[in-house]
Amino acid sequence: MNQTNSAFLLPVDIGGTFTDLTVFDIQKGDLKAVKCLTSYDNFIRAIDECMAALGLSISNALSFKHGTTLVINSLLQKKGSHTVLLTTRGFKDVLEIARGNRALPYQMRYRKADPLISRERRYKLTERSNAMGESVASPDLLELENLAHRWKEQGVESVAISFINAYANPAHEETVVQALRILMPHAFITYGSQLSREWYEYERTATACANAFVGPEVGRYVDHLSKGLDDRQFVGERYFMGSGSGVISFEVASAQPVRLVESGPVGGVVGAAAYAQALGISHMVAFDIGGTTAKCALVKSGQFDIKTSYWVGGYEHGFPIRSSIIDIIEVGAGGGSIARLDGEVRLRVGPESAGSFPGPVAFGRGGTQPTVTDANIVLGRLHPQARMGEDIELSVEKAREAIWQKLGQPLGYTSEHDVPQIAQGLLTLVSVTMSAAIRKITIERGEDPREFVLFAYGGGGPLHSVELARELSIPKVIVPIRAGVFQR
User: Fold this and answer.
1) Which of 4, 145, 356, 419 could form a disulfide linkage to 37, CB 3.0–4.6 angstroms apart?
2) What is the DSSP string of 5-71?
3) Residue 118 DSSP code
4) What CATH number matches the domain at 80-210, 3.40.1360, 3.40.50, 3.40.1000, 2.20.70?
5) Is 289:433 a contact under the CB 8 Å cutoff?
6) What pTM was estimated for this model as a whole?
7) CATH architecture of the region 8-74+220-260
8) What pLDDT digit, counting tens, does each position of 230-287 carry?
9) CB under 8 Å to 51, separation ≥6 — which residues?
């Protein structure tokens, strides 16, 4: 590949542990890829490190397409901006009432998760439209002005607006948005009918809240990334991978960040579908294990399903987003998933992840909690001299010591010779979580896993694929070349 004048396409995926980058030379047809540890303090630095490893300059790229897990991670961890919700008077508790059902009716201790925006941060405004969208009471702008002054004093960064019947006529929401952008010019303002024009009141409100909750952070992220590309003389097309399998502009990503909720994983499903078509596979389970999560989706006749509702955190304990999203099941079980003992001294794995820093203990970056990767290294399933991005030298000894001290001794084992047995138990437990995801997307939907091919990719997919296929009686496993970056 000509390192000075070559023109190439540049797709980048920033995950919880690694940043994966691929370049495709459109003149020579060459394809190269590299992985670097994700830099949380400055995401574009990892991109620079990947480009430097390939000896290339971003300025020669014709297009930049980016997948990110920033939105889903923020929503799952409930780490977002100081957000308030503005609703029609009398509808302050829509988030709490939700669908009014019990998702788990036979669990007597079942409790719904707390709403993303707590009750003390939900406010009501005098306004009303009827079911036909006709104005019954115009928004009280003096009341709105008083609320805006209070919010500025409280340091509110983001405002979500959701009025009753606004799906039929968004005029009231749009009027309030225009006024707030004058009253609070530095705040992120979003409204339900901007994101969904469906009548589902709870879902539309929850979507607006999620969009506002992550809006400021995503806006800063997009601005920083865009400025970084400008500083590196990149003048080509720039897009984010949208959750519905297409791409969206940087501007749309800033205004509607909920469209990025599965931005990272969907690229793998699209690639798996392309493989299915090329190989003539009619039934495929696309299975991806990264550093933080395991994801799976069904591909039938080369096509994947698109759904219009997505539950962050799962239907039983999460909240909905109304947006076009590839039908993906995701669980907190990846290479960086931390193994620990709970209060009853039982082994647990995930969903907490060691990320890229400190990372698994074997990485030698200060990690002390054993992970799935450490167990794989102890059992020889990962070669000690394997490259894990950058210049990381894997340490079998550190991984063994962490498993022994954190798990072996507290569990009552008497000899360090038992460490492989403990590591195997850790992997067996995480396999149960992974196989449950595949069962959920196949058996629970009336599909027979024996009729499918397991297509394993991602950094950890091939490591666990054969064991999972045996457990689920899946007859064939396919692993693409350079599965971690999906190179073919």
Assistant:
1) 356
2) T--EEEEEEE-SSEEEEEEEETTT--EEEEEEE--TT-HHHHHHHHHHHHT--GGGEEEEEEEE-HH
3) -
4) 3.40.1360
5) no
6) 0.83
7) 2-Layer Sandwich (3.30)
8) 999 999 999 999 998 889 999 999 999 999 998 888 888 988 999 999 999 999 999 9
9) 21, 57, 58
